[in-house]
Amino acid sequence: MKIVKVGAEVSIKRDIDTGTEQQREAVEAIIAQVKEQGDQALFELTKKFDGAELTSLRVTEEELEGAYAKIDEELISALREAMVNIKDFHERQKRQSWMTTKEDGTILGQKVTPLNSVGVYVPGGKAAYPSSIMMNVIPAQVAGVERIVMVSPAGADGMLPASVLVTAKELGVKEIYKVGGAQAVAALAFGTDSIQSVDKITGPGNIYVALAKRAVFGTVDIDMIAGPSEIVVLADKTANSRYIAADLLSQAEHDEQASAVLVTTSQELAEQVAKEVQEQLTTLPKREIAGSSIRDYGVIYVARDFVEAVDVVNQLAPEHLEILTEEPMNVIGRIRHAGAIFVGPYSSEPVGDYFAGPNHVLPTNGTARFSSPLNVDDFTKKSSIISYSKQAMEENGRKISALARLEGLEAHARAIDIRLEEK
Predict the structure, then answer these.
(1) N or C: which end of the chain has fewer CB within 10 A?
(2) Is the pLDDT of residue 43 over 60?
């Protein structure tokens, strides 16, 4: 890893992949085909891209039950415990509707309503992602969303991975469809004979999924367009270099564009971590991916003092931040920008990915400056409530109509004045 002194500006921002012109055109064509041909397009595109020749898109109850025989009981137990932890955390995020009454009889309030329906995209292909299901489905359930639809690409055998099916079954997801890619996003947005459209689409995917989500935004809501994963470790001389190296590599193995950064005040620790990363890399199964990430986007910043080190972290606004200092709890208050903050030597980032409870769908590429992890609020909408009394109208009506006329909206003003004329 590169070791550099902190300069005037630091960054882990990478160019957001907006796809090539050819990819964007391909996604537009897929969306148009699904809108025009519905299920027929889904069958054809699933065969073309996934090699699966399906006669039905919906996962059956028999498929769900059969998946249990393929999963170890201990793993199922771990999944169930993780679900409890995730649900407990998100239950604490719930907001209540409220109303307040003023002395003049005015009633003001806010009504919190869950979305009617949400589509959850679960990546497929070479790997299975049960954690992605939990992190998207559970906050929607806690919010009170009645209809949750899951889509995921089938393998060449026309099946979804057993771990994906078991996780969905454990969570009580009723609608699961064997379709992926841009065509799945289009189906969720516009509907087909088999798949009724939804109000919002969440969940990660490849560049075609990301482009499709971007294209359908406005017809439906989406969670975010996430970039490559990233981690920043803030450490002092007391930190364990082996722990840090392992945690940096845990993100580097995600993607060649993933970013792994150490910010420290210790030159000695910087050198130890750089050495340890190279040693651990040699035995990593995904060493080619991780090695490319470390080479191109891995860096160790050595700060002059801790104030400068914290400033670097806030400039980076990382997706994941680990604080490995002598007194890490004293540092939290200084951190302004981070998607998730992991405190202390045993709070390794994978703890949050899978088990602790907070959501692992996090803002990337510096967007933690203004956005938050996926949460219960993302699955609700809010309506303002205004009940004005006659007394309030008499006291404030002329002010309201004056403000309307200030903006040249005479009809607005007259809608108030006509009420003031009543005896």
Answers:
(1) C
(2) yes
Distance CA 390, CA 395 (A): 9
Q: Distance from CA of residue 237 to its chain's centroid?
A: 33
Catalytic residue list contains 175: no
Handedness of CA 205, 211, 214, 215 (dihedral sign): negative
CA 159 to chain centre: 26
Q: Is 353 annotated as a binding residue?
A: yes
- Site of tokens 């069958």: 43
- Asked if residues 247 and 280 have their Cβ atoms less than 8 Å apart, the reply is no
The catalytic residue among 175, 319, 322, 349 is 319
- Which among 381, 369, 328, 296 has a CA at the least distance from the CA of 117? 381
Q: Is 412 annotated to bind ligand?
A: yes
360 annotated to bind ligand: no
- Nearest residue to 50 via CA among 119, 120, 124, 122: 124
pLDDT at 97 (0 to 100): 97
- The CATH superfamily of 2-16+227-356 is Nitrogenase molybdenum iron protein domain (3.40.50.1980)
| Ramachandran category for residue 52: left, alpha or beta (phi over 0 → left; psi -120 to 50 → alpha) | beta
Q: How confident is the model at residue 127 (pLDDT cuts 50, 70, 90)?
A: confident
> Residue 416: helix, strand or coil by DSSP?
helix
| Residue 183 in marked binding region | yes
Active-site pick, 253, 276, 320, 349: 320
pTM of the predicted model, to two decimals?
0.93
Phi, psi (deg, nearest 5) at residue 409: -110, 80
Residue range(s) occupied by CATH 3.40.50.1980 in the chain: 2-16+227-356, 21-222
**Local structure of 373: helix, strand or coil:** coil
Rounded distance between C-alpha atoms, residue 279 and residue 232, angstroms? 20
Other beta carbons within 10 angstroms of residue 360's beta carbon come to: 23
Q: Name the amino acid, one letter, at 56.
A: S
Cα-atom radius of gyration of the chain, to the nearest Å?
26
Q: 21-222 belongs to which CATH class?
A: alpha beta
Question: Is 254 annotated as belonging to a binding site?
Answer: yes
Cβ atoms within 10 A of the Cβ of 113, count?
12
Angle at Cα 76 formed by Cα 73 and Cα 79, nearest 5°?
Answer: 155
